[in-house]
Amino acid sequence: MKRILLLIFLAAVPLIQVGEASAGELKPFVRDSWRSILDAHARRAFIVHFWGLTCAPCRVELPEWGKLLAERPDLPLVTVNADIVQDSSSDAEEFLAKSGLQNAENWIFNDKFAERLRYEIDPKWQGELPVTLLVAPDGSIDKIEGPATMSEISAWLIKQQEPAKKIP
């Protein structure tokens, strides 16, 4: 009996680690992943870009994000494949690599009910892509619906590096 329980436990260990991903691999975005991302980047400016393989503007825009990441390897960028039609991890990883984003923090929706994941992020979000969230160190979020321009992103990043103005 103990051997059977041990075998069951050993078989379950890989399942327990499903939330972890190696560098360059997609992390599964499930319930509470949004809170995990916010907590991991708390008190720092960072960018979250939502995209999908079936989104034509996303396929044009992602290589631009890759170029920006190549220019700024310290870019605090999180990408989330949030396609309404769930993409395969291998297809998403391949496209991220082609776009130069394999070194970004990459996630993929991993829930049959993507609506609940979108609701956790923004209750008003209906799933349109691309969407970029610019998260300031104070936790405030600016939202860009549709493709973002890299000049707009660079300007926001510069603004985040400026010292806060004190009000007399």
Characterise this structure:
The protein is an alpha/beta fold and 168 residues long. It has one domain: Glutaredoxin. It contains six helices and six strands, in the order H-E-H-E-H-E-H-E-H-E-E-H. A six-stranded mixed sheet has the order 1-4-3-2-5-6, covered by helices on one side. Helix 4 links the parallel strand 3 (77-81) and strand 4.
Instruction: Report strand order across the widest sheet.
Output: 1-4-3-2-5-6
What's the SSE pattern? HEHEHEHEHEEH
Tell me which CATH architecture applies here. Answer: 3-Layer(aba) Sandwich
CATH topology: Glutaredoxin
Distance between the termini: 72 Å
Unreliable runs: 4-22
**Beta-strand content:** 15-25%
The total beta strand count reads 6
Q: The biggest beta sheet, please? A: 6 strands, mixed
Residue share in helix: 40-55%
How many domains make up the 3D coordinates? Answer: 1
Radius of gyration over all CA atoms, rounded: 18 Å
Chain-averaged pLDDT: 86
CATH superfamily: Glutaredoxin
CATH class: Alpha Beta
Task: Indicate the structural class.
Answer: alpha/beta
Annotation field: number of helices = 6
Shape by Cα distribution: globular
